[in-house]
Amino acid sequence: MGSSDRLFSRQRTVHQILGGGLAADLMLWRRKNLTAGILVVTLAAWVVFEISGYTLLSLSSSVLLLLFTVLFLWAKSAAILNRPSPPIPHLHISEEVTNEAATLIRYHVNALLSVFEDIALGRDSEMFIKVALSLLLISVIGSVTDFLTLGYTSKFHGLVISI
């Protein structure tokens, strides 16, 4: 490696400073097709949600309506033209998966309620300060931007999980 690969003549390269993985490759445009693809998808999402005024719920509803209409018309025309019906797999959620999901949700809700109880009874002042500051920060950021922009540009879920 030449000296041009080093940042401020340091021992580590910029790629190593950025973590050296896929994220560093994307930031340094080493995987040009993937980086350009991410930028195009981000631009398309911005156009759909900000310029056109769609919300995530209205876009999902429109896509599902289009999908159901196409499948319905395909099935009706297949019956008239003696063609095969659309290949739709039989989807179902097993009881085992439902029980595992319920157990996981119950565990996390109980942990959250335990923390809430400790804060409400004054047992954990440090956690109270963390939660209060996090909620204040979320409130300030939320008043400046809308939810979709906040979701696109930050690691909002990391803030909530770390509490």
UniProtKB/TrEMBL annotation:
What transmembrane ranges does the database entry give?
33-49, 55-75, 131-152
**Pfam families per UniProt:** Reticulon (PF02453)
Keyword annotations for this protein, in alphabetical order, are: Endoplasmic reticulum, Membrane, Transmembrane, Transmembrane helix
Record domain Reticulon: where: 23-163
Its annotated compartments are: Endoplasmic reticulum membrane
Q: What is the protein named?
A: Reticulon-like protein
Which GO biological process categories is it annotated with?
Answer: response to bacterium
Q: Could you tell me which InterPro entries the record lists for this protein?
A: Reticulon, Reticulon-like
One Gene Ontology CC term in the entry: endoplasmic reticulum membrane
Q: What is its main location?
A: endoplasmic reticulum
Give the way it sits in the membrane: Multi-pass membrane protein
